[in-house]
Design brief:
single chain; about 270 residues; mainly alpha; 10 helices; globular; disordered N terminus
């Protein structure tokens, strides 16, 4: 039965369907067994700063050297462990499983029987993934800052949380597209990971083809670069945010278009 026949406005009906999908997928990604790896990853920086905070309470360790030292240590750990490892691999695991997980569980066809277009289905899955990623990795960032003694104050916390959120959005869009376009996305993930890690060795023009490059441009306290790195021109924060936003929207749109042509084949 069409929604308008039942006296339900089409836009409102679709909105409720999307809200139901996002809510279900959010709970599923937060509470299922496959979420254990996400919690472990999110706990890594928290464990590091918990150890450093314990050392500070006994009067030694780098955090005991004062707020400036604590700020520099947090910036370095956030860049090396938070962005390059936790958020990268966490988003890789979470967003690739959005579609590939349902194919592996032979449950994708049940979703496609729902009264939603495939594009809306993909968008709802992605939105749920973003909620989960931002909650876990943004939350881990704030907890780590608290353990470090809130170096830089509340504004610094907002900035780091925003970077974690943007990283989740951008990497999520990238890995969502890889999960839709590749039956086995392991090799593409390794290629992207290698590209992100050698970014500082690339010429300035190629450095701009990296999510990490724009996230680092937003860092309130830049991390010391490598002596052999190519120095790229600075990027304005507004430009970095705009590029990441456009990049994410385009990839999610491309994934939604590709989703319309996906054939269900549980033998792949």
């Amino acid at each position: 039965m069409k929604p308008e026949v039942a006296g339900i406005a089409e836009p409102g009906w679709r909105s409720r369907q999307m809200a139901a999908l996002i809510g279900y997928e959010t709970r599923r990604n937060l509470l299922s067994r496959r979420a254990i790896g996400l919690y472990v990853l999110a706990a890594l920086p928290v464990a590091v700063f918990a150890g450093l905070a314990l050392a500070r309470s006994h009067g030694f360790g780098p955090l005991a050297q004062g707020p400036e030292a604590a700020a520099e240590i947090f910036a370095g750990v956030f860049d090396a462990l938070g962005l390059r490892t936790v958020i990268f691999f966490g988003c890789g695991w979470l967003f690739i499983q959005l579609v590939r997980g349902d194919i592996a569980n032979r449950s994708l066809h049940y979703y496609l029987l729902a009264p939603l277009s495939r594009g809306a289905f993909l968008a709802g899955k992605y939105a749920a993934g973003v909620i989960v990623a931002v909650s876990l990795f943004g939350g881990a960032t704030l907890i780590s800052l608290a353990l470090a003694g809130w170096p830089g104050g509340g504004l610094r916390a907002v900035e780091y949380f925003a970077i974690a959120a943007l990283g989740s959005i951008a990497y999520g869009a990238l890995f969502c597209s890889l999960g839709v376009m590749f039956a086995n996305p392991v090799l593409p993930i390794l290629v992207v990971y290698g590209w992100e890690w050698i970014n500082f060795l690339l010429p300035p023009l190629l450095q701009r083809a990296s999510i990490l490059h724009y996230l680092q441009a937003l860092a309130p306290l830049p991390v010391a670069g490598h002596s052999i790195a190519f120095i790229a021109p600075p990027i304005a924060p507004a430009e970095a945010v705009a590029i990441l936003a456009v990049f994410s929207v385009v990839l999610v749109w491309a994934s939604a278009v590709r989703m319309r042509r996906v054939e269900i084949n549980y033998e792949e």
